[in-house]
Design brief:
The protein has twelve helices and eight strands. By secondary structure, the chain is of the alpha/beta class. Strand 5, helix 8 and strand 6 form a beta-alpha-beta unit. This is Fructose-bisphosphate aldolase.
Length: 294
């Protein structure tokens, strides 16, 4: 079982603890220094674990930024792990798996091997190969069976592809590749829902997926834009251990920057923008039940 194989991996330990404690770990998509600092400040203030999520864009933009993020994660006074989300290029995965932090450990604690843009058999074959490569480096892995429709900034748009719910067969197939975390499709989508009334999650499907995953892999939740706390709580109750967020914590910052850019000094924009992201992260840590769990 993948959870046993990488039991000392920091991300695996973090999500195992979340499942045992019945709380969710906030996973924040991070594009800049303000977001990173806000996340770590929030985690330390709330004594909460957190995962920092970088898209492959961050590596292509600047490997120095990746080094900075890895250093910040390991310098925090609470558990902070670094995850590469939606890594869709096998060559990029091979490169980032070799990046080391200052202490000689892999910079990324986990990588999402997202081969979902390939046909199923090729998806599974590539996933299996890349999982083995990551595991050899001590890096945990994640995959997305089914199709979580839509797209978001930094991820290949899949809105034109047919949305498919994760099936029981796919759970078994992907668990067999050796992954550590599973991101199922059960009505969740990347991008916008257009209102809470349009969020249609198949909770019985999620429950059945968790039963098949129990003791083998942990479940993570993608596509949370617009989710209220009660939906998050229900997903956690049904087995979700990490909750990926983007606009849920970034919208106050985006609104502030849109209104004040060019009107306030850059240092004020950075300071006040960081405070807004931190506040949003702290609120969600409370909602997810991770506050005080570090």
């Amino acid at each position: 079982m993948a959870l046993q194989k990488l039991s000392s991996n920091r991300a695996v330990k973090m999500l195992n603890a979340a499942r045992a404690g019945q709380y969710g770990v906030l996973g924040v998509v991070t594009y800049n220094m303000e977001t990173l600092i806000a996340c770590i400040r929030a985690a330390e203030a709330k004594k909460s674990p957190i995962q920092i999520l970088l898209f492959p864009w961050a590596y292509k933009y600047s490997p120095l930024f990746v080094d900075f993020v890895a250093h910040a994660c390991r310098s925090a006074s609470v558990p902070v792990t670094l995850h590469m989300d939606h890594a869709q290029d096998p060559e990029v995965i091979k490169k980032v798996a070799k990046i080391k932090a200052e202490d000689g450990t892999p910079a990324f604690d986990s990588i999402m091997v997202d081969m979902s843009h390939y046909e199923k058999e090729e998806n599974l074959a590539k996933t299996r190969e890349l999982v083995a490569l990551c595991h050899d480096q001590g890096i945990a892995t994640e995959a997305e069976p089914g199709r979580i429709e839509g797209g978001e900034d930094g991820v290949q748009d899949t809105a034109e592809l047919e949305g498919m719910m994760t099936t029981a067969e796919e759970v078994d197939e992907f668990v067999d590749t050796g992954i550590d975390f599973l991101a199922p499709a059960f009505g969740n989508v990347h991008g916008e829902y257009g209102g809470v009334e349009n969020i249609k999650l198949d909770y019985p499907r999620l429950e059945s997926i968790q039963k098949k995953c129990d003791g083998k892999v942990q479940i993570v939740l993608h596509g949370t834009n617009g989710f209220p706390p009660d939906i998050m709580a229900k997903c956690i109750k049904l087995g979700v251990t990490r909750v990926n967020v983007n606009k849920l914590v970034m919208d106050p910052y985006f609104d502030y920057a849109k209104t004040n850019t060019g009107k306030k000094p850059l240092t004020s924009l950075m300071d006040e923008g960081t405070d807004l992201i931190q506040k949003a992260c702290e609120e969600w840590m409370d909602h997810l039940g991770s506050s005080g769990k570090a």
